[in-house]
Amino acid sequence: MHTLLKQVIASKLLLLSTIILLLTATISCKKDQVDTLSYYEVGMKNNSPEWRDSSFIVATSNRELIEQIEAQLQQPVLQRKMVLGTLAPGSGGYNKNATHGFKWHFKEDEWQLAEITIKK
């Protein structure tokens, strides 16, 4: 009976060790796979004399959106889509134009490119 108890304890310890190892491997993989943000400057053509209003910065880690952005950058400027999404308070640490930090930013990964037309 004593030998049987040792075998049961040994198999449970082995199972526990395997579970801990798998959890550690999963956590490590998730840390390594954390998406980093890609930043893009969005320029605007307007008649404003304010240089601060000429561009702003957006950020995303969405691979699909990044591919769309890269494709848009190959298009002529007048054919490119607009940024549309959720605004958040503060600059997010990156939404600025030169030394001017905006008091808003598009919430990361909560914006998209949209085709916007104005009918006259």
Overview of this structure, please?
This protein is α+β, with helices and mostly antiparallel strands and 120 residues long. The protein has two domains: 1-34; 38-114, no CATH class. It is built from two helices and six strands. Strands 1-2 form a two-stranded antiparallel sheet. It has a two-stranded antiparallel ribbon with strand order 3-6. A two-stranded antiparallel sheet has the order 4-5. The longest helix is centred in the first third of the chain and has 31 residues, at 2-32. The relative contact order is 0.14. The model is unreliable at 10-34 (pLDDT under 50).
Structural class by sheet pairing and helices:
alpha+beta
Strand percentage: 25-35%
Order of helices and strands: HEEHEEEE
Helicity range: 25-40%
DSSP E strands, number: 6
**Radius of gyration of CA atoms, rounded to a whole number:** 25 Å
Summarize the structure.
This protein is α+β, with helices and mostly antiparallel strands and 120 residues long.
Primary descriptors:
single chain, 120 residues, alpha+beta, 2 domains, two-stranded antiparallel sheet, 2 helices, 6 strands
SSE layout and pairing:
Blueprint: H1 2-32, E1 38-43, E2 55-60, H2 63-72, E3 82-89, E4 96-97, E5 100-101, E6 104-114
Antiparallel strand pairs: 1-2, 3-6, 4-5
